[in-house]
């Protein structure tokens, strides 16, 4: 029994180590990760975008994705809002606006390459990696296809090859990781004819964005989307209209995704450490209670038996005493009887001699 | 000879077997479609809705309803409530079958099921709540198998192996409670990463605790519910001891469920207050939330309490069904109904009939396996060779 328990505890210890190793739950510390210092990003300025879909085409070509359902120069697809799919890492949507700006506003959607990605935090085989270049890349050779990354992503980016029976992959923008490590531009940035997309170091892009806002304060909303959203993203956005009007969520907050689960994860080793103590304790208390109950029962039985024995003894003694008394009484009675018998003889003799005397005595007393 | 064959086939052609047979046949067909055409061929899943009822029902509801195993064995072996001893084996069996079927269902849902061991043997994504769920479910399935094994070994007459398995009872029970605490709560914690997708009434930092507490409630209620069903269909298999303890189990577990439901109601209200979500109660989702909280938590709590006070077994049994439905509703609300609530209705998910077909198929396999086992192994009675030995 004790050996088995020890074995289990050592297993639990191993489980604790494996769940805590390599994970930095920083919810309760003052550490803050503000991105790899030299990492890259892209700035998208929607006041410059004309909705030509050239970026979609460029992306499609460099990533060798399957051909589109409708050609890239068919702008009628912009009539309906679209999202990223397994066949399109990036899409452009059109939003009508009735504000100061004339004409529609466009929004380009692709992976934002979060500084602390929700997908990477959620993946149970570490298929996602945030590289020092800024790109969040995916390794299909370990992916199980659980799609928890799709649940986790606040920007609803990862797509899945639902039509693949046996080898489905998660599909998403890689920031053209294979190209940027070679010093090339991402496909979409290279294809953009209006410089709505700027590739560069994230730090520099933030400076550029701030400069544009301060230079043209009437043209831009005074907010760089992606600077702090979900802890910051490698893609940054400038907009001429409120972000919610182009379908970008303003309620995501600035907490990096890993921090949302850090508390729950940090409870795991505590449970593993304390539950065995608590439960063994409960078991010990139960056992002890049972033991006490048993002992008390035995004691009660013993006491009852003792009492019964004592009572019996007392009764016996009493009975003996009574018997002895009775015997004595009987002896006394017998002796008395014998004495009386003995005494009777002379009395009878005397009575036979003068009977008149005895009859006279009460008469004398009456008078 | 021909008459014998006819008689034998007649014995198998009961309505139950026929319905089960049709479901299994359908399940096999859908299985073939799933593994030839992919998820797109048999599900309504989409890039917006990566998880459907195979996760919402088969995994989340399945694991919650299989909680009877750890709840009962903890009550009897750790807390010393020996008068519930006859409930342990059926509860452990249902737990074991439940978890085995959860794992089976996952083989349909994940893209490459043969890679399910990858998180353990290739790369550990230990920052993921899903890693914790996977690790605990895998370990707990093993624990349940070992906890169940004495019954199978008695059936097979392997006395020495059985003695070994029985000796592990205490360690396995403690290990089982630890693992259950962890993964029952982690299933709720899975959704902590998506505050922007889950409706604020259901999203709470207390989600892990809510899931853990409701698993105890579901476990208690399932034991009562299964005991009712077993008594109805397998009364002949029950020994005197089982029949004698049965009503006491319903009363005791009903009382516990009532208390824990009350506690759960309290912490739900605390969560509502902590996040200051009162204003949401006036919306459509708020109404649905109240249906869940009042209709499937508070009312069953009262029903149980009244049933226990009046020793009304019928009311207790119906409260158990009611509560089980309530926990199932909660899991479906978190994973499907209130999830992606921000999306336009055209992008929302509703299960394909073939998804329901597979879920039904898996439940049917569970019922058939349960039937196979209780009609053969000493689950509802004590094996005559091992009276009072465990």
Secondary structure layout plus pairing:
The complex is a heterodimer of chains A (367) and B (390).
Chain A: H1 2-20, E1 40-45, H2 54-62, E2 91-95, E3 105-109, H3 118-122, E4 128-130, E5 136-138, H4 148-152, E6 159-160, E7 170-171, H5 177-180, H6 187-191, E8 197-201, H7 202-215, E9 235-238, H8 257-352, H9 355-366
Parallel strand pairs in A: 1-9
Antiparallel strand pairs in A: 1-8, 2-3, 4-5, 6-7
Helix pairs in contact in A: 1-8
Chain B: H1 2-12, H2 15-37, H3 39-42, H4 53-65, H5 68-78, H6 88-109, H7 118-121, H8 129-156, H9 159-167, H10 169-189, H11 207-234, H12 240-274, H13 284-309, H14 313-337, H15 353-374
Count of all domains of chain A = 2
Stated plainly, the CATH topology of chain B is called Formate dehydrogenase/DMSO reductase fold
CATH topology of the largest domain in chain A: Alpha-Beta Plaits
Beta-strand percent range of chain B: under 5%
- Most extensive interface: pair and counts? A-B, 74 and 67 residues
Let me know the largest β-sheet of chain A. Answer: 3 strands, mixed
SSE topology string of chain A: HEHEEHEEHEEHHEHEHH
How many strands of chain A? 9
> What's the number of extended β-strand segments of chain B?
0
| C-alpha-based Rg of chain B, rounded | 22 Å
User: Which outline of chain B best applies?
Assistant: globular
Strand content of chain A: 5-15%
In whole angstroms, the N-to-C terminal distance of chain B is 46 Å
CATH architecture of the largest domain in chain A, by name, is 2-Layer Sandwich
Mean pLDDT of chain B: 93
- CATH C-level of chain B: Mainly Alpha
Characterization of the model:
The complex is a heterodimer of chains A (367) and B (390). Chain A has 367 residues and is mainly alpha-helical. Chain A is 46% helix and 10% strand. Chain A has 2 domains: 32-255, Alpha-Beta Plaits, CATH 3.30.70; 267-351. In chain A, the strands form 4 sheets. Chain A has a 3-stranded mixed sheet, covered by helices on one side. Chain A has a two-stranded antiparallel ribbon with strand order 2-3. Chain A has a two-stranded antiparallel ribbon with strand order 4-5. Residues 16-27 and 358-367 of chain A have low confidence and may be disordered. With 390 residues, chain B is mainly alpha-helical. Chain B has a single domain, classed as Formate dehydrogenase/DMSO reductase fold (Up-down Bundle), CATH 1.20.1630. Chain B is built from 15 helices and no strands. The longest helix of chain B has 35 residues, at 240-274. The radius of gyration of chain B is 22 Å and the shape is globular. The chains are: A mainly alpha (367), B mainly alpha (390). At the A-B interface, helix 1, helix 3, helix 4, strand 6 and helix 8 of A face helix 2, helix 3, helix 5, helix 8 and helix 10 of B.
């Amino acid at each position: 029994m004790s050996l088995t328990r020890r074995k289990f505890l050592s297993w639990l210890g191993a489980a604790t180590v494996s769940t805590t190793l390599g994970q930095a739950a920083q919810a309760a510390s003052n550490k803050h990760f503000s991105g790899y210092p030299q990492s890259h990003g892209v700035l998208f300025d929607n006041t410059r975008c004309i909705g030509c879909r050239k970026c979609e085409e460029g992306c499609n070509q460099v990533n060798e994705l399957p051909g589109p359902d409708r050609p890239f120069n068919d702008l009628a697809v912009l009539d309906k809002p679209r999202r990223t799919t397994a066949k399109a890492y990036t899409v452009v949507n059109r939003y009508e606006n009735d504000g100061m700006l004339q004409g529609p506003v466009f929004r380009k959607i692709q992976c934002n390459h979060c500084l602390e990605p929700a997908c990477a935090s959620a993946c149970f085989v570490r298929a996602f990696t945030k590289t020092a270049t800024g790109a969040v890349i995916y390794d299909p050779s370990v992916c199980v296809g659980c799609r928890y990354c799709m649940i986790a992503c606040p920007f609803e980016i990862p797509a899945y090859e639902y039509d693949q029976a046996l080898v489905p992959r998660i599909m998403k923008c890689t920031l053209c990781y294979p190209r940027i490590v070679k010093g090339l531009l991402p496909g979409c940035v290279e294809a953009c004819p209006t410089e709505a997309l700027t590739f560069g170091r994230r730090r520099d892009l933030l400076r550029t964005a701030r400069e544009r806002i301060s230079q043209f304060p009437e043209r831009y909303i005074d907010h760089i989307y992606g600077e702090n959203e979900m802890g910051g993203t490698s893609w940054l956005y400038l907009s001429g209209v409120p972000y919610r009007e182009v379908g970008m969520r303003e309620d995501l907050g600035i907490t990096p995704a890993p921090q949302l689960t850090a508390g729950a994860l940090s409870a795991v080793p505590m449970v593993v450490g304390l539950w065995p103590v608590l439960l063994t304790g409960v078991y010990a208390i139960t056992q002890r209670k049972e033991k006490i109950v048993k002992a008390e029962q035995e004691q009660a039985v013993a006491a009852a038996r003792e009492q019964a024995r004592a009572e019996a003894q007392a009764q016996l003694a009493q009975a003996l005493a009574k018997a002895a008394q009775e015997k004595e009484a009987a002896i006394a009675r017998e002796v008395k009887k014998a004495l009386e018998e003995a005494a009777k003889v002379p009395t009878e003799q005397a009575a036979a001699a003068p009977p008149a005397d005895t009859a006279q005595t009460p008469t004398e007393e009456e008078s | 000879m021909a008459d014998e064959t006819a008689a034998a086939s007649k014995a198998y052609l009961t309505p139950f077997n026929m319905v089960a047979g049709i479901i299994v046949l359908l399940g096999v067909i859908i299985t073939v479609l799933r593994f030839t055409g992919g998820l797109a061929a048999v599900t309504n899943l989409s890039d917006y809705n990566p998880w459907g009822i195979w996760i919402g029902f088969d995994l989340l509801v399945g694991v919650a309803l299989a909680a009877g195993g750890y709840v009962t064995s903890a009550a009897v072996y750790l807390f010393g409530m020996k008068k519930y001893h006859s409930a342990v084996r059926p509860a452990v069996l249902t737990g074991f079958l439940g978890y085995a079927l959860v794992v089976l269902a996952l083989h349909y849902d994940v893209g490459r099921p043969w890679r399910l061991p990858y998180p353990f043997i290739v790369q550990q994504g230990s920052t993921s709540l899903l890693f914790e769920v996977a690790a605990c479910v895998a370990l707990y399935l093993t624990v349940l198998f070992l906890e169940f094994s004495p019954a199978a070994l008695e059936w097979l007459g392997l006395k020495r192996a059985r003695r070994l398995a029985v000796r592990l009872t205490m360690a396995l029970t403690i290990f089982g409670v630890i693992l259950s605490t962890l993964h029952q709560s982690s299933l709720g914690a899975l959704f902590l990463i998506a505050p922007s997708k889950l409706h604020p009434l259901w999203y709470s930092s207390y989600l892990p605790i809510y899931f853990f507490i409701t698993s105890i409630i579901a476990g208690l209620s399932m034991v009562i519910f299964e005991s009712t069903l077993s008594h109805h269909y397998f009364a002949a298999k029950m020994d005197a001891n089982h029949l004698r303890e049965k009503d006491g189990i319903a009363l005791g577990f009903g009382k516990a469920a009532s208390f824990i439901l009350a506690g759960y109601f309290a912490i739900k209200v605390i969560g509502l207050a902590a996040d200051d979500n009162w204003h949401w109660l006036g919306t459509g989702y708020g109404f649905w939330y109240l249906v869940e909280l009042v209709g499937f938590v508070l009312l069953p709590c009262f029903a149980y309490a009244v049933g226990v006070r009046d020793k009304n077994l019928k009311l207790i049994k119906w409260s158990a069904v009611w509560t089980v439905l309530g926990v199932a509703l909660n899991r479906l609300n978190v994973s499907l109904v209130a999830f992606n609530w921000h999306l336009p209705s055209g992008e929302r998910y509703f299960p394909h009939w073939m998804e329901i077909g597979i879920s039904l198929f898996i439940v049917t396999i569970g019922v058939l396996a349960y039937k196979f086992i209780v009609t053969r192994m000493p689950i509802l009675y004590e094996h005559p060779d091992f009276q009072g030995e465990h």
